Amino acid sequence: MAPTMEDQQMMRGQYRVVVIGSGNWGSVAAKLIASNTIKQPIFYDEVWMWVYEETLHTGEKLSEVINQTNENVKYLPGIKLGNNVIADPDLENAVKEANMLVFVTPHQFVAGICKRLVGKIRPGTEAISLIKGMEVKMEGPFMISKLITDMLGINCCVLMGANIANEIAVEKFSEATVGYRQDKEVAQRWARLFSTPYFLVSIVQDVEGVELCGTLKNVVAIAAGLVDGLDMGNNTKAAIMRIGLREMRAFSKLLFSSVRDSTFFESCGVADLITTCLGGRNRKVSEAFARSGGKRSFDELEAELLQGQKLQGVSTAKEVYEVLSHRGWQGLFPLFTTVHEICIGQLPPSAIVEYSEHTPNFSLVEGSALYY
């Protein structure tokens, strides 16, 4: 029997993947993806990874070392990415054959990257964002997935979850959530690309809910780190996490009425919040900030503690505060407001446990009775 059109497409390796970003999480994403593309015929074997070129202390170029050693020696040392991962410092060249774009860079760089890609990507290309953060424009908050969609004219799903990259790199069990807008088949393809026996991916029709969970939990993690730095203990930290989850849900539903309550019980929601407040980089740097009494800046501590990785929580807290202040919502979100004011030095670290929790007017939010 002659092969069907679908069989022919599968034999050709219909889907070509590029990972845009090569930091800690980007390198782990490339490893996950490469383990699947080599096994599944619908994907082209080779996975391209765009590398923001750096010169290492040895004088070698990072992209060249990755290709020689199959290892990102700066951001994920000791982990083999897969022989089918190809590092490329030329963004336009890296994406030219791809029709599946995986965005995984610090959120503040996305607009500049997309600007460079306008007119350079293939028709019918799909994207997914693993990026936790948002842009704030004059008209209001702008999710990174929407920024990619609007700038490049392509559909963009999101993947978020309780995903500390170094644990996934050594194949400890983890979960993640793909949020999609309309096309379930595309979401299932993304899940197929990422899923492994140790990395289970589910899909949810709620892009904004999934993405906002991944974004806002970093602000709560700053608060959790402050509690750790103040040696306040587990009861206080649990209270901060509960208040934070409440504010995450309320903020998300005020911005997007389509956000589903059930999303907050997926990996992207409560699970990501827990793991980030227990072990993420935002918690780590925030703890050091509190132990210094707020005398050392977050920028200084980021440079000292993260070896080139970027902190997202402080910038996200600023962006969230811009939305709150513009809409007069500070009183509804005392935790989010306090975190930002501590980050900019307006309040001391101890303010995180000193503020009086107001009774917010959650009647603005559908289903608010769940809060009381």
UniProtKB/TrEMBL annotation:
- Name the SUPFAM superfamilies for this protein: 6-phosphogluconate dehydrogenase C-terminal domain-like, NAD(P)-binding Rossmann-fold domains
Q: What class of enzyme is it?
A: oxidoreductase
What's one GO-annotated cellular component? cytosol
**What domain of life is recorded for the organism?**
Eukaryota
**Residues noted as binding NAD(+) in the record, renumbered to the chain:** G21, S22, G23, N24, W25, G26, F109, A165, R281, K310, Q312
Coiled-coil intervals: none
Please give the catalytic activity noted in the UniProt record. sn-glycerol 3-phosphate + NAD(+) = dihydroxyacetone phosphate + NADH + H(+)
**EC annotation from Swiss-Prot or TrEMBL:** 1.1.1.8
Pfam families in the record: NAD_Gly3P_dh_C (PF07479), NAD_Gly3P_dh_N (PF01210)
Query: Which UniProt keywords are given for this protein, alphabetically ordered?
Result: NAD, Oxidoreductase
Give all residue intervals belonging to the Glycerol-3-phosphate dehydrogenase NAD-dependent C-terminal domain: 206-354
Q: Where is the active site?
A: K217 (proton acceptor)
Q: Which residues bind substrate?
A: K132, R281, N282
Q: Which NCBIfam families match?
A: glycerol3P_DH
> Know the name of this protein?
Glycerol-3-phosphate dehydrogenase [NAD(+)]
Task: Please tell me the species this chain comes from.
Answer: Elaeis guineensis var. tenera (Oil palm)
